[in-house]
Structure formats: structure tokens, C-alpha cells
Recover the amino acids of this structure.
């Protein structure tokens, strides 16, 4: 946002859709962006990746593809590339705004995949020892913190995590079926279809933003 404020000197002092003043950086504005703008979508992206990570390739490619799917399927429908956002009429050039926000979404997908992959590899099996228990205590503490700033999103994500954990614990057959090669291929077909269905709308939205 600071970059776009610098490249849009005529917009200095204008009010954005989020009721923030262009060119003015404040603690309230930054916290509001993180808490109500970035954080809910980051938690939702993490939840989606936790469910569908088996359907993506491993390594950097998987993170890049996940970020691309987020950008095409959600970037122009939720945030940050909604074509009806009046801020695109204030800040410019619009091509720079599209590239900047697009890179942010791609980066979110790659960082999400990298962090969740790292934590999954280093998470030891449950055991009654302090050295192991802190790995499992850390997540509830994080959820407790997020509950204060994004209660509904965290409740949704926590409920989904409980369902997934319960299925893995009490329905091993279903868990094995979810991890099977057939389900992996089916999931990739679903993701590819989702991407293909969302692509025309994405292209239309970008063309509306960048005349």
C-alpha cells in the first residue's frame, strides 16, 4: 500500500474503502489491515491447504501452485483484486497494483505450504513427555491468541481441525482412503476443474481493473 501511495501523489489525503487516508501510516490502520484483512484469509488459506495438501506436488512447486490457485479462485472474488474496489480508481498505476497484490497472494500460498510442511515434518507423535507436549500446546495457544482477534475464522478452522483429527483417529479406513492414490488423482482433477472454472472470471476482473 505504501508503494502505491508513493506512485499516486494525486491521491494523497483521499479516503480508501477501509476508511484509511492515502499516504498516512498509522498503528490503527496497520493493525486493522492485519487483523481484519490479512489474518482471516491467511487462516482460511491454511485450512484449505491442510485439507488439500496431498493433492499438490511437494516442495516449492506445490506452494507456487497453491498460491496460483488462491490468486485465480479467490483473489478477484474476495481480496485483494476485486474489480469493484474503488481504491483502484485512486491508486495507480493499476498494472502495478495488480502485480503487487498478485505477488502477495502467491507469496501467501508459498509461505503457507512451506511453514505447514516444516511443522508437519517436525511434529513428533503424541507422547506423555514435556519435550513432545509443547509441540501440541503451541497450536492451542496460537488459536487462543487468534480467537481474540478473529474469533469466527478461528472457530471455523478449529472445528475443521477437530473433525479431521477425529476421522483420522476413529475412522482409519476413511483416513487411508483419503490418502490413497485414487483419491489424490481425483482431488487433482477437482482442483484443476476449479482452476479452469475460475480462470475466465479472473481474466475478466483483471481486464476491468487494468483498462
Amino acid at each position: 500500500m505504501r508503494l502505491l501511495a508513493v506512485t499516486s501523489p494525486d491521491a494523497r489525503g483521499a479516503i480508501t474503502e477501509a476508511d484509511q487516508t492515502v499516504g498516512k501510516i498509522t498503528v490503527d490502520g496497520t493493525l486493522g489491515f492485519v487483523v481484519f484483512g490479512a489474518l482471516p484469509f491467511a487462516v482460511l488459506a491454511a485450512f484449505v491447504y491442510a485439507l488439500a495438501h496431498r493433492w499438490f506436488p511437494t516442495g516449492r512447486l506445490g506452494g507456487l501452485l497453491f498460491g496460483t490457485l488462491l490468486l485465480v479462485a479467490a483473489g478477484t472474488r474476495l481480496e485483494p483484486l476485486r474489480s469493484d474496489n474503488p481504491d483502484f480508481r485512486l491508486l495507480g498505476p493499476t498494472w502495478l497494483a495488480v502485480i503487487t497484490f498478485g505477488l502477495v497472494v502467491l507469496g501467501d500460498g508459498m509461505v503457507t505450504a512451506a511453514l505447514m510442511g516444516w511443522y508437519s515434518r517436525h511434529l513428533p507423535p503424541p507422547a506423555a513427555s514435556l519435550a513432545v507436549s509443547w509441540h501440541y500446546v503451541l497450536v492451542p495457544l496460537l488459536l487462543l491468541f487468534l480467537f481474540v482477534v478473529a474469533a469466527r475464522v478461528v472457530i471455523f478452522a478449529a472445528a475443521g481441525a477437530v473433525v479431521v483429527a477425529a476421522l483420522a483417529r476413529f475412522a482409519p479406513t476413511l483416513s487411508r482412503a483419503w490418502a490413497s492414490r485414487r483419491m489424490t488423482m481425483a482431488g487433482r482433477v477437482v482442483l484443476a476443474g476449479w482452476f479452469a472454472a475460475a480462470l475466465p472470471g479472473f481474466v475478466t476482473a483483471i481486464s476491468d481493473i487494468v483498462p
